[in-house]
Write a structure and sequence with these properties.
Oligomer: heterodimer
Helix content of chain A: 25-40%
Largest sheet of chain B: 4 strands, antiparallel
Mean pLDDT of chain A: 96
Structural class of chain B: alpha+beta
Distance between the termini of chain A: 81 Å
Largest interface: A-B, 14 and 15 residues
Shape of chain A: globular
Amino acid sequence: MKKITGANLLRILLERQGIRTLPGIPGGAILPFYDALHGSAIRHVLARHEQGAGFIAQGMARVTGRAAACLATSGPGATNLLTAIADARLDSIPLVAITGQVPQALIGTDAFQEVDTYGLTLPITKHNFLVRSAAELLEVVPLAFELAESGRPGPVAIDVPKDVQNETIDIASLPEPGRRRPLPACPDEPISALAHLIAHAQRPVLYLGGGIIAADASSLARELAHRAAMPTVCTLMALGTIPPEDPLYMGMLGMHGTQGTNFLLEEADLVLAIGARFDDRATGKVAEFCPRATIAHIDIDPAEIGKLKTPFLGLVGDAADILGRLLKILPPQKRPAWLARATELRASYPLDHPPRSEDPLHPVNLCRFLGEQLPDDAIITTDVGQHQMWVAQAYPFRQPRTLLTSGGLGTMGFGLPAAIGAALAAPDRRVACVSGDGSILMNIQELATLAEENLPVAVLIFNNAHLGLVRQQQELFYRERYEASRFSSNPDFAAIARGFGVRGVHIDPNDDPLAEIANALAGEGPCVIDIPIHTTANVYPMVPPGAANRQMISKKSKPTHA
Amino acid sequence: MPKTTSPSAILELVVRNHPGTMSHITGMFARRAFNLEAIFVVPLPGGETSRILLHMAEEPKLVQVEKQLAKLHDVISVRHRTDLAPEIFSRLMDQIPGVSPAPTS
């Protein structure tokens, strides 16, 4: 038997889970735990806003695939974490959020910095806990990590009242760390049925979602595409699964996908979705998605099968396991006519953009230039908006887990802290955050964290002095009535960076801008590169919200409001 | 007694009995815009688990509701009780002294 406080027990349990880096911000109700961190193997990273701490942890989890933890105090500390937790839920990211709570005797009394963290995190977590005794930690902490990583990954919240942290208990032994629990295997029969469907299809398409990356099944997906001669489309969350040079790769589908990609899905007679959830940004009007196709759907979450589109065949299980078994029984296919059609569609609808020599700072040219400057294993984080879609369309992602982006919740402010987390988790790799002048301001305080940690993160701001995607929607769908989308005052981001102790560079468009960017990227340590782009450039093509994917607007076909 | 005309279903759950379980279940219905018509909960012997009967109005969403319920960590089992009619909830209510009978329409 050994005497131990709840705070020390929590620290030991986290150490045993392999947690070595823990972003957070202290405050009254979590101070006993911070005291227990003193001299621990865990290195605390002091964020400047709890949402930043949550996204730093997400960056770590998205790069490694393992659950990361973050820390906040009660009340505003907990509410500030909520966006990062909800974001992890929608993108299925394993995250364990630990919050302090007022002492149990004060719960329900409207005490200082008291908020119902359990109630607030309930609808945005896989599961959540309010710990009522130090002994409960022995069960709760390993279970939280097990739940976060098992099946479809997701966030788990643990709320720990201050008296629980201070309580001293006797413990005889420590529990085993919580680990990913294996799932029941998918039976053989639907896998045989799937092999039969693929072998008898004439125009099959592989539709990959973020689940293919969560399952670490990218190479199996590529093998399937080639074995079965299936052109392959990716959602935003699956980019990096298949390199753009692969002849079977058709790019991103959906609202800002290329036209050829969306037309291919119109013609398909079989669509095999793997780890994709038929999100409205990918499918457009879901009733008219893939109108000629039989749908087969592989997902680890049984509730995703048939949630939005009833498949002919649904397979529940681990994508890597199912694909491995499918490849053993699927004979190689040849579909010269269909592959030629896919190649024709891909060639017929390239991204519409001016040549680099004419317009080097056009965002599509910029993204391709960045792809040339950075190694294939560089990690790119984005914020949310036009720059995010340009990166998705034009940056050549060649490896899984190299694009970290807020796909489901679409959180502006994700990029900078996620890049810090990525750099902490992968210290030997290049990390770049592509942001916009709107998004970067939503977590710009994390430049202080970046300076303190001195991580090799380059922040590239595509600066159009607008909330660009809002402006674009107002131009296209709200009769060019621009409301609250233009910034009449825009800060000097290079000066702001220097104020935080980070190298700051403003790119002059008239002065060999690409060479300046390359020069800035070549420097040591963190930097912010402010790049002026066209103030009114739009992301094309675009499917109007609520429309079918075939109804794409291009630069040439955009509606006019003369 | 006339059968209800709207298609509906009764689900029987066995759940872990601790504070928060009911919030998880009712919260899931609210969040995903599923209609919950009636709910009846009794702890099972031992107090570790409870049995819940749920009446939901829209049968087309039944499969999705069952799957979403099964995903909740505190839900141990979900069973569709095709043998039960929704009238059992009003009959249960009628047996409680001092509760006025449910209006029949």
